[in-house]
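Q: what sequence does this backbone want?
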């Protein structure tokens, strides 16, 4: 037998050997759990297209947060669903808006949790777009003023991190300037820097009740065919003051995540989006895949591609599996 080949299997010989040489490790510290907060009382409504994910009202929110703490999850990303929507999304920046109330409640009752506020208008506008509409188009600069107001109101309510997701040009610069002038220079910005116009967002729009009432978001979110544009977007956000860079979606964009990681020296966040979650859930419920193994492999691939942090609806399940 030839002795010229390499014996790679030596380092795969047992569970302990594989653990010893493992290059990429997933922990609960990596996880951010997204949650949808609604107005009303005693609401805990499962999202039909996202089994295991719920819209919750404030009276059920503390129980949800305590569960996260028990599981070892340290961070939560908040999305709000107001009862009333209007053309300019005024509930997004109202001091008594649903996200602002949720932030105050969490900071009072579960202060150890890191609270991240999604900063956008699409859940709050009657047309479902992320900014102000004139002549059927989203107005960039006019919308920025409302995003700044939203970010400041979220910081005032106790957000630890502002996460703008609107993809307007200049959104990080304007929000950074607004936060600094309002006395919140210490609040970091987790920018949705690389956000593609993806078909994987469908279940999220059910959960957040934010489906556009006309057209689509392709004039502000990115074309899935583009790679260099992702690096330009990320560079702009770094220049404007972003402290974290999000790549969204994650699974179909691992190549982009690796390039962002190699190029920029800030924490990179993978957003494991709703469509990615729902596909696995549907297959698991039909007995077609081993959900635990599929999810852990999927999230590990994101870390291997460069993610430091992962936003995922699987967070609770992953925390339970990792503690076994």
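A:
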């Amino acid at each position: 037998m030839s002795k010229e080949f390499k014996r790679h299997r030596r380092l795969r010989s047992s569970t302990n050997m594989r653990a010893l040489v493992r290059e990429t490790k997933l922990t609960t510290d990596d996880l951010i759990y997204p949650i949808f907060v609604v107005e009303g009382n005693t609401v805990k409504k499962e999202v039909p297209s996202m089994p295991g994910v719920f819209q919750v009202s404030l009276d059920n929110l503390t129980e949800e947060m305590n569960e996260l703490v028990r599981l070892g999850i340290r961070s939560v990303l908040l999305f709000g669903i107001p009862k009333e929507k209007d053309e300019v999304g005024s509930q997004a920046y109202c001091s008594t808006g649903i996200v602002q109330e949720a932030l105050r409640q969490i900071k009072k009752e579960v202060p150890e949790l890191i609270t991240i506020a999604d900063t956008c208008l699409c859940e709050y506008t009657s047309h479902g777009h992320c900014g102000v509409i004139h002549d059927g188009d989203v107005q960039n600069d006019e919308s920025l003023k409302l995003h700044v107001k939203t970010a400041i109101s979220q910081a005032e309510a106790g957000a630890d991190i502002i996460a703008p997701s609107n993809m307007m040009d200049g959104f990080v610069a304007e929000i950074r300037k607004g936060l600094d002038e309002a006395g919140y220079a210490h609040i970091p910005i987790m920018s949705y820097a690389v956000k593609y116009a993806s078909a994987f967002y469908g279940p999220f729009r059910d959960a957040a009740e934010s489906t556009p009432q006309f057209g689509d978001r392709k004039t502000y979110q990115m074309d899935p065919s583009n790679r260099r544009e992702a690096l330009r977007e990320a560079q702009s956000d770094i220049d404007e003051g972003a402290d974290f860079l999000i790549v969204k979606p994650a699974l179909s964009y691992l190549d982009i995540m690796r390039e962002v990681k190699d190029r920029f020296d800030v924490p990179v966040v993978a957003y494991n989006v709703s469509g990615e979650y729902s596909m696995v859930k549907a297959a698991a419920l039909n007995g077609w895949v081993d959900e635990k193994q599929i999810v852990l492999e999927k999230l590990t691939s994101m870390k291997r591609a460069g993610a430091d942090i992962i936003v995922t609806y699987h967070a609770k399940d992953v925390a339970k599996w990792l503690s076994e």
